[in-house]
Automatic annotation (TrEMBL):
<keyword id="KW-0808">Transferase</keyword>
<dbReference type="GO" id="GO:0005524">
    <property type="term" value="F:ATP binding"/>
</dbReference>
<dbReference type="Pfam" id="PF01504">
    <property type="entry name" value="PIP5K"/>
</dbReference>
<protein>
    <recommendedName>
        <fullName>PIPK domain-containing protein</fullName>
    </recommendedName>
</protein>
<dbReference type="GO" id="GO:0016308">
    <property type="term" value="F:1-phosphatidylinositol-4-phosphate 5-kinase activity"/>
</dbReference>
<feature type="compositionally biased region" description="Acidic residues">
    <location>
        <begin position="1"/>
        <end position="11"/>
    </location>
</feature>
<dbReference type="InterPro" id="IPR027484">
    <property type="entry name" value="PInositol-4-P-5-kinase_N"/>
</dbReference>
<keyword id="KW-0418">Kinase</keyword>
<dbReference type="InterPro" id="IPR023610">
    <property type="entry name" value="PInositol-4/5-P-5/4-kinase"/>
</dbReference>
<keyword id="KW-0067">ATP-binding</keyword>
<dbReference type="GO" id="GO:0046854">
    <property type="term" value="P:phosphatidylinositol phosphate biosynthetic process"/>
</dbReference>
<feature type="domain" description="PIPK">
    <location>
        <begin position="61"/>
        <end position="435"/>
    </location>
</feature>
<dbReference type="InterPro" id="IPR002498">
    <property type="entry name" value="PInositol-4-P-4/5-kinase_core"/>
</dbReference>
<dbReference type="GO" id="GO:0005886">
    <property type="term" value="C:plasma membrane"/>
</dbReference>
<dbReference type="InterPro" id="IPR027483">
    <property type="entry name" value="PInositol-4-P-4/5-kinase_C_sf"/>
</dbReference>
<feature type="region of interest" description="Disordered">
    <location>
        <begin position="1"/>
        <end position="28"/>
    </location>
</feature>
<keyword id="KW-0547">Nucleotide-binding</keyword>
């Protein structure tokens, strides 16, 4: 009976609150054990706080990584410039130089607020040679990277990489994983040979490969050419591979202010019609793509993309192009029209131009960063900016396995991951027959004439300045004419 009495009235006791609530008197309150939405957005090693907006990568803030990169690159490139020039040797592609950056500084490094780190520079001498080929001086390279804070680009891509852009729009800095960095190191000798033989290419141009080591975490980055200048509005952006399987921008991407569309979107937006190029532009573009794909196939590279930015021309831009005038002297005072690297604009990448000495000038000045004139299917006159991206993917075991399993439930020829040779053929065929079309008779200006006239004007401007300087020197010496 005692036991029965002990349990009498249990039904009258208040029910136990759930683990995430607490009862105070007659009030039940929720404990803050769960957030209404995800606080941290994760993608790869990238973490973004949805409340504060802070972005971290391998537990280091984006700002701290950018600051460390600026310090490390300035030191590495600056010290390298003190060494005498010599030919690149095979062992130079395997060199890794490193230096410690304690927060208090040393006799070689300044004090800083980015946390203690070790900076590694991969194949620094070979990379200097690449920069020399594209006429990038030590001063220009360092100025672009450290003169102002690097600007983070919000789109992390599928891999969760971090992207930064320099203040002058010259360079993109992107984080890469260990396999991509290792693959690039192995690729460098062949890349060296290709760039030496053909500096006019739509392939990415690698200007530096570095690593910031913080708290046992390796953050590897590559410095590349920037394809889409921020000063030119891109009304469309496309990432094209020539495949159809799931090649459509998702709903989240479509809601962005400036979405990046894919293959199926291209067909839908332009109603399966193509972008018109004058015949010379078309032939030069397709020939360059063919040559670049041959190089990529030789290294068993696949799953790369063709990035296109489309800028709709204003009335003033159309009039300027029709008059074939680049107004080089007027734009010289405006830094947004300067490209310090040779072969960095689309027009220079695919056209040989005239025999006017390209390397005489300090800056390449092209209207709107050298976009290639084109026509959309509805007749709208545009400038296109393009290049091949994401080439650090090799067709090895992981990619072969991915191809096998995807082929089980869809057409193996329509997926992105296929044999490099087939990928290159499909890629070229798509761009040649589905994206671009030649137009023999067009109101569009001839790009090679634009490039030639711009270079001639630039050369004339330089010679006139030298003559003026010579007259001043004569006057200083007391010689009058």
């Amino acid at each position: 009976m005692a036991d029965e009495e002990q349990f009498d009235g249990l039904d009258e006791l208040p029910s136990s609150p759930s683990p995430d609530t607490i009862k105070v008197g007659s009030t039940t309150m929720s404990l803050p054990t769960k957030l209404k939405g995800k606080k941290i957005k994760k993608k790869g090693h990238r973490r973004e706080n949805n409340i504060t907006g802070e972005v971290t990568f391998k537990k280091s803030s984006s700002e701290a990584i950018a600051g460390a990169l600026q310090l490390g690159i300035a030191h590495s490139v600056g010290k390298l410039s003190e060494r005498p020039d010599r030919d690149v040797l095979m062992q130079d592609f395997e060199v890794v130089e490193l230096i410690d950056f304690p927060t208090k500084g040393t006799t070689l490094t300044p004090p800083h607020e980015f946390g203690e780190f070790t900076f590694q520079s991969y194949a620094p001498l070979a990379m200097r040679y690449f920069r020399d080929i594209f006429d990038i001086s030590v001063e220009g390279y360092i100025h672009s990277i450290i003169h102002e804070p690097l600007t983070a680009i919000g789109n992390p891509g599928a891999s969760g990489s971090l992207f930064w852009i320099t203040h002058d729009d010259e360079f993109i800095i992107k984080t890469v994983d260990n396999k991509e960095a290792e693959f690039l190191m192995n690729l460098l000798p062949g890349y060296f040979m290709n760039v030496q033989q053909n500096p006019r290419t739509l392939l990415p141009k690698f200007y530096g490969l570095y690593c910031v080591k913080k708290e046992r975490k390796h953050i590897r980055v590559v410095v590349m050419n920037n394809l889409l200048p921020r000063d030119v509005e891109m009304h469309y952006k496309f990432d094209l591979k020539g495949s159809r399987y799931k090649r459509k921008a998702n709903s989240k991407e479509q809601q962005k202010k400036s979405p990046t569309w894919k293959d199926l979107d291209f067909e839908r937006i332009f109603d399966s019609k193509r972008i018109s190029l004058v015949k010379e532009s078309y032939n030069a573009m397709i020939e360059t793509i063919k040559r670049d794909c041959l190089v990529l196939n030789s290294f068993s590279i696949m799953d790369y993309s063709f990035l296109i930015g489309v800028h709709k021309c204003s009335v003033g831009e159309i009039a300027s192009m029709e008059s074939m005038s680049l107004s080089a002297s007027n734009s010289r005072g405006n830094s947004v029209f300067k490209r310090s690297a040779l072969y960095s604009s689309p027009m220079e990448q695919v056209f040989t131009g005239s025999q006017v000495n390209l390397q005489l000038s300090q800056h390449k000045v092209d209207q709107n960063w050298g976009g290639i004139p084109a026509l959309l299917p509805d007749g709208t006159q545009v400038l296109i900016y393009c290049g091949i991206i994401d080439i650090l993917q090799c067709y090895k075991l992981l990619k072969r396995t991915e191809h096998f399993f995807k082929s089980l439930y869809t057409n193996g020829e329509e997926i992105s991951v296929v044999r490099p040779g087939f990928y290159a053929e499909r890629f070229q065929d798509f761009l040649k027959n589905k994206v671009f079309i030649p137009q023999s008779k067009s109101s569009l200006p001839n790009p090679s004439q634009i490039l030639e006239q711009g270079l001639e004007e630039e050369l004339e401007d330089k010679l006139s300045k030298e003559a003026a300087k010579s007259n001043v020197d004569h006057n200083k010496n007391g010689t009058y004419f």
